[in-house]
Amino acid sequence: MKENKEYKNEALAALKGRWAPSVLAVLAYMAVLAVFIAPYEIKAMQLSYDPTNLQLAADMMKWYPVFILAVFLSRSRFWSDW
User: For 20, which DSSP code?
Assistant: First the structure.
């Protein structure tokens, strides 16, 4: 059974000389995530200013399951076989 250090060394060896595509992929992922999360965060700030705004609270809650599903799918072992 391999140790964490061996996995780390293999990963670094695989990325040797190929950092640019990896960095660009991470930045693209963060940009797409920011586009989808920004409206939700704006609503959260508005709700913090007026916690009695029930319509805004209900609007935020209807998107909550989508975020939970996205987090579940991104961390699921289902995708590790692909």
Answer: H
Q: What are the tens digits of pLDDT across the range 40-50?
A: 778 778 877 88
DSSP letters spanning 22-69 = HHHHHHHHHHHHHHHHHHHHHHHHHHHH-TT-HHHHHHHHHHHHHHHH
pTM: 0.44
Percent of the chain whose predicted confidence (pLDDT) is above 70? 90
| Dist. CA 10–CA 16, nearest whole Å | 10
Q: Is 17 left (phi over 0), alpha (psi -120 to 50) or beta?
A: left
Contact 43, 59 (CB under 8 A): yes
What lies within 8 Å, CB to CB, of 57 at 6+ separation is 47, 51
